[in-house]
Amino acid sequence: MSKAGAEKTNAARLLDAAGIQYSLIPYEVDEDHLDAGHVAASLGEDVDRVFKTLVLRGDKTGPFVCVIPGSLEVDLKLAARISGNKNCAMIHVKELLPLTGYIRGGCSPIGMKKAFPTFIHESALMHDSIFISAGVRGLQLCIAPDDLFSFTGAGIYPL
Known about the structure:
Elements: H1 10-18, E1 23-26, H2 36-43, E2 51-58, E3 62-69, H3 76-82, E4 88-90, H4 93-100, E5 118-121, E6 130-136, E7 139-143, H5 145-152, E8 155-157
Parallel strand pairs: 3-5, 5-8
Antiparallel strand pairs: 1-7, 2-3, 2-4, 6-7
């Protein structure tokens, strides 16, 4: 399941309990550069395989999650439409920890305090595996996209 020697996170324990294969991949954290581009460079991976987890709030549904490649910015109009909202906005960083249990730079779509509707970018399916936060800064989960979709019950964030 996980890589020996890496710290187990709540996300990893949940995947273990579900019998889902993954690897835990540590990387060097730079507090000044928490973006996916830095993570990808630290891992020696293509930024389009390193997915970031964004938490938004819709005007009708409340909080929801978009998991998109590190090279992209979230399209708020598209995110609103696919989530059943008229409009949406990113939540403020100070709301992230109380709402999800995660901090900026360590937010995983797995193991939030509450299961929010989740949408994963369709491009994830073009890869055998992708990287997402393991739930702490400095640790990524490498997981098959199909397993991530299945585990989170995610919908598609279209290309």
